[in-house]
Amino acid sequence: MNIAIIGCGYAGISAALSISDTHNITIFEQSEKLLPIGAGILLQPLGMKILELYGLGDKAVSIGDQITALEGFNIQNTKILDLQYKKYNPSLFGTGIHRGHLFHALLAKLKEKRVEIRVNEKISQINTEESKCSFISNEKEYKNFDVIIISNGAKSTFRNLLPKFKYQKEYPWGAFWGIFSNRTHAKNILYQRYDGTKKLLGLLPCGKDPETGNSLINLFWSARYTELANIRQQGISTFKSELIKFEPFSKDVVDQITSFDDLLYTTYHDVYCRKWNHKNMVFIGDTIHGMSPQLGIGLNMALFDGYLIGKVINQDNFEVGKLSELKNARSYQNLFYHATSQVLTRFFQSDYKFLGKIRDVVFPFFPNIKVMDQLMINALCGYKTGFTSSMTPDEQIGRFLDKINDR
Q: Which end of the chain is more exposed for a tag (fewer CB within 10 A), N or C?
């Protein structure tokens, strides 16, 4: 079959890797260059499993840092967040990694496959009325695609082509992100500091620079987008002073900031769709279930989507109606993570001050309540498959393959 993938992000690349051995793939990317957006990311066991299946598991571990714990403190130095992977499995860990290094590792793997990548393709119209799909890009028509996989991110306008309920909202809060040399911080802990729901600073170790060998760390600082102009107007010196005053522990990293050009500001989108496919189209990744980064699971889900849709399309008896099998298998999992992300975001980045006070009182008890601690670890790892169910990545994949092979 001829398959078009719109968007060369993590979901799109994952889908291409999963499908390319058996079908002809063309990726259409609107950017002029293939560059990842963002800074450091935390790969969870679910995402690591998909990378392992693509032959990149060892590569990710070698260029990242093994994260064994997530710790968060309020300004009174009370430990609010204390998630220890090893409490439930000594072999469990996350991997802090530079987004760009992971992207290029996936891209290098993709170049070994039978995949054409076209950049600077601004698609304006998609037609699925015929048995074959077509679309217009830069006033040129591309025809005869059997399937179109849409993975062009949370801001995608193509969701309008989906029937049934669709929800999209941009959070009023986002964060400054930047990658710097890690000279003093522990390489196995994602560290955070909170002041209510309006101030959050985080430090995520994210491996080594492959060129210099220097250890890297991702700094992120919460900021409402309505405050951006004021923050920039006050100047970089004032900005840095505020960060160091808020968290003296961050001084060595903050001192490396020379201007706002060293930082990227991004906002988050909350996306939920009841239906993931329509006719010859299927939507994956943030395009269909975007969420805030509070759970650190979005990219892992994007990789998972790409891998599973490949398994659907690679069936010997595939027909476009079977594109719905991805959504059918993931609906409860997606609903759980969407709802949990919405709730947690309000406790850490929102205008609801009272939620910060509740968080500071209630959250410290969670590590002592086994069922809550287990729930949080399972959610973090990508193990949750619904509100009351959990499975390891191997079990999730095995169940999915059993279902589609029985049909």
A: C
Calculate the alpha carbon distances from 154 to 9, 179, 286, 352 in Å: 11, 23, 5, 25
Spatial CA neighbour of 290 closest among 150, 163, 162, 170:
170
Q: What is the pTM of this model?
A: 0.95
- Tokens representing 162? 């989906």
Say if residues 250 and 238 touch (Cβ distance below 8 Å): no
**pLDDT tens readout for residues 378-399:** 999 999 999 999 999 999 999 9
Q: In terms of C-beta density within 10 A (0-12 exposed, 13-18 middle, 19 or more buried), how is residue 221 classed?
A: buried
104 three-class SS = helix
- Return the bridge partners of 216, or none: 181
Nearest to 134 by CA among 333, 281, 311: 281
**Who wins on pLDDT, 258 or 127?**
258
Percentage of the chain surpassing pLDDT 90?
Answer: 83
Closest CA to 302 of 99, 61, 101, 70: 99
Question: Distance (Å, rounded) from C-alpha 110 to C-alpha 105?
Answer: 9
Q: What is the pLDDT averaged over residues 311-329?
A: 92
Say how many C-beta atoms besides its own lie within 10 A of residue 380's C-beta. 22
- Strand ranges of the sheet holding 133-137, from the earlier edge strand across to the other edge: 123-127, 133-137, 140-145
What are the structure tokens assigned to 25, written together? 């793939």
Half-sphere exposure of 31 (CA within 13 A, CB side): 10
Mean pLDDT for 167-174 is 91
Tokens of 368: 């002592």
Distances (CA, A) of 126 to 157, 165, 257: 11, 20, 43
58's enclosing H/E stretch is helix 57-63
Is residue 248 pLDDT above 90, yes or no?
yes
- Assign residue 164 a region: left if phi > 0, alpha if psi is -120 to 50, beta otherwise? left
Angle, in degrees to the nearest 10, between helices 45-53 and 298-313:
40
Q: Do residues 276 and 338 touch, judged by C-beta distance below 8 A?
A: no
CB atoms near residue 17 (< 10 Å): 26
